[in-house]
Amino acid sequence: MFNKILLPTDGSIQAEKAGEYALTSADSFGADIIVLYVVDTYYLNSKLSTLWVNPLPEPDLTRKSEKELRAEGKNAVESFKNKLEETQCAGKCKNVNLITMIKEGKPADVILETINEEGVDAVVMGKSSKHGIDKFLLGSTTEKVVKESKIPVHVIP
């Protein structure tokens, strides 16, 4: 039924739970899992542009922040992949090929673009990494993907 499953991750516990669900699904169908981390350059640029009237420090700070976020993303996707390999996927990886990607942009837009570019059949993602009353709502990225995707999106709490 599914050949490729997209698993967007931000390194959160919710993303880890989504990964476990994606593994079970991928193993059942012999599907590939694309583990995607998006460096949120949209948020970074919009926040930094409001912090300074004088734009001189912004480019250096933006580059430094993007570099740190990219390193965080690499760590998140590699950590997920290593964890699976170390545990032998609890017997759930016999038919699974893991592909890791790090992209930049606005997360929801990048996720939707990746669906089309990679020919993804389903998306598995965490609900949100928020706390308090916000934990009962979908995160804005998840909500946009659910609303705009033309393929099944499995949201894992």
Describe this protein's structure.
By secondary structure, the protein is an alpha/beta fold. The protein has a single domain (4-156), classed as Rossmann fold (3-Layer(aba) Sandwich). It is 50% helix and 20% strand. It is built from 5 helices and 5 strands; from the N terminus they run E-H-E-H-H-E-H-E-H-E. It has helices at residues 13-29, 41-51, 57-86, 107-118, 140-148, and strands at 4-8, 32-40, 97-105, 122-126, 153-156. The chain has a 5-stranded parallel β-sheet with strand order 3-2-1-4-5, sandwiched between helices. Helix 5 (140-148) links the parallel strand 4 (122-126) and strand 5 (153-156). The longest helix has 30 residues, at 57-86. It starts with a strand and ends with a strand. Mean pLDDT is 79; it is low at 51-56 and 130-137.
Structural class comes to alpha/beta
Question: Which fold name corresponds to the CATH topology?
Answer: Rossmann fold
Radius of gyration: 16 Å
Give helix and strand order, one letter per element, not per position: EHEHHEHEHE
Strand content: 15-25%
Q: Helix share of residues?
A: 40-55%
> Ends: how far apart?
23 Å
How many distinct beta strands? 5
The major pleated sheet works out as: 5 strands, parallel
Number of helices, where a helix is a run of at least 4 consecutive DSSP H or I residues = 5
Second-tier CATH architecture: 3-Layer(aba) Sandwich
The CATH class? Alpha Beta
Poorly predicted regions are: 51-56, 130-137
Strand order of the main beta sheet, please? 3-2-1-4-5
Shape: globular
